[in-house]
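Researcher: We're teaching a course module on how sequence relates to structure. For the next exercise, students receive a sequence and then see the predicted structure as tokens, so they can try to spot secondary structure elements on their own. Here is the exercise chain.
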Amino acid sequence: MRRPLPRATYSVVLISALAAGLLSGCSNSSNSGTPGDSEPSGSAEARAQAPASVESLGFTPRRLDLPVYDYQLSPSQYAKVAEAKQVLVTACMKRYGFSWSTPAPTIPRQDRRYGVIDLRAAQRYGYHLLPTDSSAAAPGAPTPSKEEMAALTAGQLLDGDTGASRLAAGYDAPVKRVRGKAVPPGGCAQEAERKLLGRDDLRSEAGVVSRINTESFSSSMRTPAVKAVFAKWSSCMKKAGYDFADPLKSIGSADLNVPAAPRAETELATADVKCKESVDLVAVWSRAETSIQRTMIKKKASATAAQRADNETRLRNAAEVVEKSG
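Model: And here is the predicted structure for the students to work with:
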């Protein structure tokens, strides 16, 4: 029986404060078989890969269709909002004499909630992320000066789940003025959020949606149907020469810190996907999680509806901001 690959170190860094949500105090998980793959990633392997079009991939990456996704921004929608934030923050920072820009966020192509689910992706990239259209290899933004950070944040961080502000490390009180000019509450970052949200109060129900996203994932793995399909998948993998109890342990054996997947990894990922297909794992797992999510969403109907409305407002205002910016 083949020995598992060295265990991975899932180190995920933010491309920039702006790309990650304008200095929010919390963020979602990375997209390596866990919830939260609609967020941009700055992982080492993503930065190492060159931009690529769908045509160069040769296939359209598969995405799941789960109820909670209706209450989150999709990768392409996130990119539109991030672009508008960049426009707004750049204009705000200019008022203080600063030239501000950040690299575009790296938007994930694939849905890795259940691990790799595309055979061609497994054969070519293993468990590594697929190349993206945006330039993942773009250099990072230079470290902002203390004055720039004061204008950008006013010494405060925004909790992306609740919309509440807290003082950032190193600040005893919110910054009121920079270069003799008044700083808006929360700095240019929160000013941009208020413009996109269309109101001064930044409190949100994103935390409710985030908890549904993560808790439904964990709960689904404890259902009899998913446990049974995991056992079938594991049996299939043993026939292929691998010993893993479930797909997440298979992912965890890959070293994603290296720039490209070695042959052993692509072979493992290929066996993984073939076994998923043979036991219908994705369909079984998604049905179980869909049922759980629908129940959770129904219990939090008011909060989830409010978050969806906020997302629609952000998208509408983001489109206007980008259009006006020319």
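Model: If you want an answer key for the exercise: DSSP finds twelve helices and four strands in the chain. Residues 98 and 323 are 23 Å apart (CA to CA).
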